[in-house]
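2024-03-11 09:14:02 INFO queue: dequeued item CaCA family, sodium/calcium exchanger, len=369
2024-03-11 09:14:02 INFO validating residues
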Amino acid sequence: MPDFLRATIDVLLGIGLLFGGGELFVQGSVALAVIFGIPQLVIGLTVVSLGTSAPELFVSLSSVLEGADTLAVSNAVGSNIFNVMVVLGASALVLPLKVESRLVRRDVPLLIAISAAVWGMASTGQVTWQSGVALLLALVINTIWEIRTAREEPDGSEGAEPEIEANAGRGGWTMAVVRLIAGIVILTIGSRVLVSGATSAATLLGVSEAVIGLTIVSAGTSMPELITSLVAALRGRTDLAIGNVVGSCLLNLMLVLGGGALAAAGRGLEVSPELIQDDLPIMLMTSLACLPIFWTRGCITRLEGGLLLGLYVLYVIDNVLPRTTLSSWSDEFRLVMLCLVLPVVMVVIITQAIFYWKRTKGRPDHIPG
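2024-03-11 09:14:37 INFO prediction written
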């Protein structure tokens, strides 16, 4: 079997195993939580969100243990970019995403702050274990804050959390533990297969691990978020579609990147210069792009959803183009992006934010975020 075909099969097989393992992990974890009488709200804010981010976590940990730090970091960064541009964009194409939940709108500024902090941590060329501890501590504090906020304002937040099936605990704790352990085992195997395939593919294609992690691996590990948000949009639960994206992005930075930095121990989690200069700023900009809409209780329209998807396509082209026979066009492509595409996007975002702000300002029931 040709080496490249083998690497491709490994990547696809790894993604499939991660998807199946993540589903079993969620089922087992939720069942145990229900059996032990943990409130549905807490399960939705912790267990379910952790389950959808389990593929990213296991892939990053496997990458660190195998010495592929760049793949670990690019997986987390690329997943955030994919979540905002593709998951939100595709969900908005299905149904315009109306922002109602205060819980969602409060999480967006936090996501921007954490994204900026991670960029600052990584600017030295590595994310130290101390930074990893800080990110994990921030995750604990944020989880407690989320639960307290949701309980204080249930009307504004319960719609943003996934429903827990009433019979989730059926089968007893034995079956729940079996599912949980099986999920962890499959996630571990799937992550190792995916990392091995991605590393081999990068070597055979002559591209960096960062490019593979930012595109193929991040898209593969973000499939649970994409499916969850699309189903939520089809059912009209737009806050769940948005909350899933924002919550997953926060976990990618605090849990996945923080856990990876802690696993790297004393040597620190190395960050490549291209990630620091290009992709981390783009990750931050994608979070900033959503802020005006979320704060004004606006709506992510189908037009904006299509715009987000188009931007992701351009982002992928920008990563792949320099490694192809058309590499001589990469500088011209970036110039067009900088001088034409970026200004147009900013004008659209600002115009839409002003429109929604003016429309909601005069409403008597309008409550500032």
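2024-03-11 09:14:37 INFO annotate: The two ends are 58 Å apart (CA to CA).
2024-03-11 09:14:38 INFO item closed
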